[in-house]
Amino acid sequence: MDTRPPFDFVKLPAARSTKPRGNGRTMMIDDGLPLGYVADLMDIASDYVDLAKVKTGTARLYTREKLRAKLALYKQADVRSFLGGQFHEYILATQGESALPRFYDEALSLGFETIEISDNVVPLTPQQRVAQIRAAVATGLTVFGEVGSKETLNDPNLLVQQAHDCFDAGAELVLVEAAELVENGKLRTDTIELLMRQLDMTRVMIELPGPWIAEVRSCDIESMKKTLIAVLGPDVNLANVSAATLIDTEAARVGLGTAGPGTINH
Predict the structure, then answer these.
(1) N or C: which end of the chain has fewer CB within 10 A?
(2) pLDDT tens per residue, range 82-109
(3) Is the pLDDT confidence value at 124 over 70?
(4) Integer Cα distance of 256 and 244 in angstroms
(5) Count of CB atoms within 10 A of residue 177's CB?
(6) What is the CATH number of the domain that holds 177?
(7) Residue 65 to residues 68, 240, 245: CA-CA distances in angstroms?
(8) Predicted confidence (pLDDT) per residue in 182-223, tens digit
(9) Could you tell me the CA-to-CA distances from 7 to 58, 78, 233 in Å, in that order?
(10) Pairing status of strand 80-83 against strand 51-54
(11) In a domain, 2, yes or no
(12) Cα torsion for 223, 242, 244, 259, to the nearest 10°?
């Protein structure tokens, strides 16, 4: 059997890392993907995805057996699954902080090793953010902190401070809410440049916007993706990539996508 890649005379750029990656990670959104879809997707595209976010509170809508089966599929493919931060916010809003330890214990018992802590729609004080991250880490969970709001544009300096708070509290990664990076459908390049100056971008994931953000179209998402790769290079950490565009996103990273080969010179 010929095991060479198709068109193996086309060399991929050395600047693009391979798994396991310390940078250049792709985070995919799982908003209820069927098990068969996940199995087939991991079979064809697992080399190009590092993290899978089980979106919002969708984990509550599976059977235990099916949820565990899904997490096992990701683990077999060396893809790290985690609970989206808005589920944490929902527990906090409806049951209070006293219910969070039960949430952490249940996450661990189901097979999650990582959760996201955010305040997209339920605001946290800096003290609450730090305390909640530390409490989750103390249970044995890894925490990704998310900064920014889905509803208002904040001072970019606030995003930087929130990111530092997350890191100081023990968060492994920080995700920057996509809504903070887009204004009138366009990328806020000044915010991106500030993040690059003030933060270790190997520990920061830039979220792509989606249809949940007003005035964002599919072409705007693609434009932002191309711009981020052009500015930060093929090893930019990208979050909120749709399952259907995993391979296409990797093609953009290595210069094989619609933006052409210009991205490979970093």
Answers:
(1) N
(2) 999 999 999 999 999 999 999 999 999 9
(3) yes
(4) 17
(5) 26
(6) 3.20.20.70
(7) 5, 26, 28
(8) 777 677 888 989 999 999 999 999 999 877 777 778 888 888
(9) 40, 26, 24
(10) parallel
(11) no
(12) 20
